[in-house]
Amino acid sequence: MTRVLITGGCGFVGSNLAPILLREGHEVVIYDNFSRGSKFYLDDVGKYSIINGDIRDKSSLLSAFENVEVIIHLAAYGSVVESVKNPIENYSINAEGTFNVLNAAREAGVKKFIFASTGGALIGNSLAAVNEQSVPRPISPYGASKLAGEGYCCAFANSYDMSITALRFANVVGPISWHKKGVITNFFKAII
């Protein structure tokens, strides 16, 4: 059984991922500050170890990462529109927070790390048909902060022998996504 910690585990993606990991036999620890997520999004909340913490709190992260083998970093200030309105908060959570999570993982000896990035880290003013070789041109503070996180992931993977994967999500929808402010959710609300 692998001990997996999900930052932002009570958010939309985390609350859909956590039960899958549990069914596959992993021990799941959720680290969330509940600013956007909720324990009510989780089925069988008692099956998880839940830590109320903020990714900007370095000491809390370090103690939470003890005996963790894999970290899935989903915690983020996840709105493009809100990042334009409040770029300082966006930077604090997404860029500094991601650095804190990576550094605490390094200090705790965690070797496997998955980072939730965004297509917006690459797409923006890029030409159509982007790929891994495309030059990143984010057009929002959100995209820029996620690109900074990707940069730190690359640096930590190479400097500290960590296995790090970055996933570039775009307009994810599904169960428990009704509260999200993305374009797909807005389309569904307009149709209804």
Describe the structure.
The protein is α/β, with parallel strands linked by helices. The protein is built from six helices and six strands. A six-stranded parallel beta sheet has the order 3-2-1-4-5-6, sandwiched between helices. Helix 4 packs parallel to helix 5 (about 140-160). The chain is globular and about 45 Å long. The mean pLDDT is about 90.
Helical proportion, percent range: 25-40%
Spatial sequence of strands, sheet with the most strands: 3-2-1-4-5-6
> Approximately how much beta-strand content do the residues carry?
15-25%
Q: Span between N and C termini?
A: 43 Å
Number of strands: 6
SSE order and pairing:
Layout lengths: L2 E5 L4 H12 L3 E6 L16 E4 L5 H7 L5 E4 L6 H6 L1 H22 L3 E7 L22 H20 L2 E7 L13 H9 L1
Parallel strand pairs: 1-2, 1-4, 2-3, 4-5, 5-6
Helix pairs in contact: 2-4, 4-5
Brief descriptors of the model:
192 residues; alpha/beta; six-stranded parallel beta sheet; 6 helices; 6 strands; globular
